[in-house]
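<discrete_fold_record>
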Amino acid sequence: MRDHKGHDLGACSVFFQASPRKRRGLCRTSCCFTCLGSDDKCCPGQCARIADVPLELLCTECTNQPLRAGPPPTILFCGLRDHNKPDEQNYLRMLRQFVPGFQNLRLTAPLGIWLARRSTPRRPRPPQACFAPPGGQGCTGFNTQTGLAEQLSPSSTVVRPSTEEPFYIMQTLCIAGERALTFFDSGANTHLVEGSLAEHAGFTVLSDRSVSIGVVGGGTIRSGYGQYSCILGPDVLGRHHEIECQGLERISEEFPQFDLRPIHLDFRTSAPEARGQLLPSHIGGDRVRLLSLIHI
């Protein structure tokens, strides 16, 4: 740890009583955020000892992020307030079992981790930028053409946020006997497939090399799988489509399930040619296993 010499990390009370943010600054170039070991064995984006780290020491939310770049940090380095934190006494017990020297350390202050839990109810913030003043006046609006704030009249048309669930273009495909929720995305620049599905189905392997993928915000993630090719079909015109896709360990979390049965009658009425077709009872209710880009 920077500016700390003559003792191991497990015997450093300054480290364990610091905030997660301060720990990151102290250990950025000398300590792995996952196994707490020295950086000469680990490298950016990889931890040489991750298999030895007890899951109880790692941040659960960081571990479960599907598009996370690199291994998850221990709770000691995760300062996100909305990530669940363990009972402090149980976490101290795990540290004593895993970190050499921590058994004999005497802390003079509580262990420095955020103890806020996701389940803690938050007080809603009162609206500040736009409110309905007494006297029947309208709200304050921001004119994006002039750049000025202006008072809207009570007769102004204001489109309020929808209370409905967002709906995406999805389809459930059957690939090698497995249900594969497919997400069609016009903003993607490549096809993605869950690596385990590609391996199970026997997709053609184009490359077995894991690659770095850029994400929104400038970060990168490691794919964990190579590139594949497959042919899917037939479509409604009887055609088959070849796609080349990048394998990922996990594409998304589970999507909500939408019941499609209430619209079956309307659909058959508007599309007479579909009256004899078998329609899906629902869509969603699973994680995305295939993401397909849409060419426009």
User: Anything to note?
Assistant: The chain is about 15% helix and 20% strand. The chain has two domains: 9-104, 170-293.
